[in-house]
Design a protein that fits this description.
Helix content is 66%, strand content 0%. The chain is mostly helical and 195 residues long. The chain folds into 2 domains: 51 residues, Arc Repressor Mutant, subunit A, CATH 1.10.10; 143 residues, Tetracycline Repressor, domain 2, CATH 1.10.357.10.
Length: 195
């Protein structure tokens, strides 16, 4: 392993341990020395990678924000309901392979709350997954796949469901992911929809 690869591996180790501790203990109850100990390094060495706990948090939020961009990628001719179903299927599968993803959902939810460091909170609030998904819902409404209604509220409810599922799966490692079709079904048009 090259020196650059070792440095990147250490950096990743710090981030993953910080993520776990922030979720388990809370940001303010996690000391920088706790993160260093979990990463099996001295606090001084850790400061070579991140200058502060706030910088660590902000970097984690940036990682989380980058991960959400997949929800708004160009879908081509794929119907919105099929796209969202497949997106959830892949996300749940990836999260089972990489359990830190569950913690990332929890952290992103926590960081949006008042009282968190401002830079990290603003970065978390800038994530526009809800708005991008609302546009997909509008497309589905035009084609009759999704029921009528306020697409933004529908998107918020969709993502609140996903957030809750991810938080439950973060706490219960044995929990199986629900069928993505169940979640997308709350958006789908039914016989009771009005014109």
């Amino acid at each position: 392993m090259t020196r650059k690869e070792q440095k990147e591996e250490r950096r990743k180790n710090i981030l993953m341990n910080a993520l776990r501790l922030f979720v388990e203990r809370g940001y303010y109850d996690t000391r920088i020395s706790d993160i260093a100990e979990a990463a099996q390094m001295s606090t001084g060495l850790m400061f070579h990678y991140f200058e502060s706990k706030e910088e660590l948090l902000t970097e984690l939020v940036r990682m989380g924000a980058e991960g959400t961009k997949a929800a708004g990628r160009e879908m081509g001719d794929i119907p919105p309901d099929v796209y969202l179903t497949e997106f959830l299927r892949r996300m749940f599968s990836f999260a089972k392979e990489q359990p830190w993803v569950f913690n990332m959902f929890v952290l992103m939810g926590q960081v949006r709350r008042a009282g968190m460091p401002e830079e990290a909170r603003k970065a978390a609030e800038a994530v526009d997954t809800v708005e991008r998904t609302a546009k997909l819902i509008e497309q589905g409404q035009k084609s009759g796949v999704f029921h009528k209604g306020d697409a933004l509220i529908m998107s918020r409810c969709f993502w609140a469901s996903v957030q809750g599922i991810m938080e439950e799966m973060a706490m219960d490692k044995e929990m199986k992911a629900p069928e993505p079709e169940w979640i997308v079904a709350m958006l789908k048009a039914g016989s009771g929809d009005e014109d």
